[in-house]
């Protein structure tokens, strides 16, 4: 029989780098056991070594259903519980081509990584989350609300994450709360694996264009994720929280 772990347990997909790493670091600091799942095994292992014994690093393609099933089985076997799922894994826009030249393969790759992964991880985590009365936080993007040219696949995937959030919240409540965070410009260059890590290069005008006065940090997203999975957020579900320094509220005239 699986032993029940005394500490709360969180799964952070895409937790090896960037925003996911920031979330994993915050949840570990809050005393949780954190499983980071990342398709980049090197990044996952580096983050696990950096953050210490509270981290379990796994190399997982979360767009692959058998791999997700096995990941949840391992979590159940090791911890006997899961209290929070942070669906953060995704890829940027590798196919930033005009839509008439966007291949179906490139479109499908982005949708699988950014949207199908959220469905699969949520689907297979439900029994454990229901047992713990846990919660899900999905990471979307302000690209679900506004676009630059040639970002159709990425924008569609993140819009799907936002819609999937409220659908899951209605289907899974009251046992499981489901919310969404849509980050704006978050500087992550110094949160990447060591082979790719560098200091962010940010100009004064990059900060100044944000009503909050600066570009965002992974900690800005992590602090909200930590709140949303806590009992203090017990009356919040089905919501999308935009964390962008106010950019989506700013009217811009040429």
Distance between the termini: 65 Å
Largest sheet: 7 strands, parallel
The CATH first-level class comes to: Alpha Beta
Strand order in the sheet with the most strands: 3-2-1-4-5-6-7
Q: Work out the strand percent.
A: 5-15%
- How many strands in all? 7
The third-level CATH topology is Rossmann fold
Q: Could you state the CATH homologous superfamily? A: NAD(P)-binding Rossmann-like Domain
Q: How much is the radius of gyration in Å?
A: 18 Å
Tell the overall outline: globular
Uncertain segments are none
Quickly give the structural class. Answer: alpha/beta
Q: Architecture, according to CATH? A: 3-Layer(aba) Sandwich
Helix count equals 7
Quickly describe the structure.
The chain is of the alpha/beta class. It has helices at residues 18-29, 41-51, 65-79, 104-132, 152-172, 204-208, 218-228, and strands at residues 9-13, 33-38, 55-59, 84-87, 135-139, 177-183, 240-243.
């Amino acid at each position: 029989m699986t032993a029940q772990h005394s500490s709360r347990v969180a799964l952070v997909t895409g937790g090896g780098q960037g925003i996911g790493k920031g979330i994993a670091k915050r949840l570990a600091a809050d005393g949780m056991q954190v499983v980071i799942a990342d398709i980049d095994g090197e990044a996952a292992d580096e983050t696990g070594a950096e953050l210490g014994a509270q981290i379990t690093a796994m190399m997982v393609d979360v767009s692959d259903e058998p791999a997700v099933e096995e990941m949840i089985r391992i979590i159940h076997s090791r911890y006997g519980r899961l209290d929070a799922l942070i669906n953060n894994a995704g890829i940027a826009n590798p196919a930033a081509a005009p839509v008439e030249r966007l291949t179906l393969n490139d479109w499908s790759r982005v949708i699988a990584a950014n949207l199908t992964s959220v469905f699969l991880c949520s689907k297979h985590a439900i029994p454990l989350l229901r047992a713990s009365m846990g919660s899900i936080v999905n990471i979307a993007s302000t690209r679900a609300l506004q676009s630059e040219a040639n970002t159709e696949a990425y924008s569609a995937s993140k819009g799907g994450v936002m819609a999937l959030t409220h659908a899951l919240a209605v289907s899974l409540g009251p046992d499981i709360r489901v919310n969404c965070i849509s980050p704006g410009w978050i500087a992550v260059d110094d949160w990447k694996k060591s082979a790719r890590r560098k200091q962010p290069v940010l100009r004064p005008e990059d900060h100044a264009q944000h009503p909050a006065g600066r570009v965002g940090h992974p900690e800005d997203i992590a602090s909200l994720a930590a709140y949303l999975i806590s009992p203090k957020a017990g009356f919040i579900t089905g919501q999308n929280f935009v964390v962008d320094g106010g950019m989506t509220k700013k009217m811009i005239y040429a």
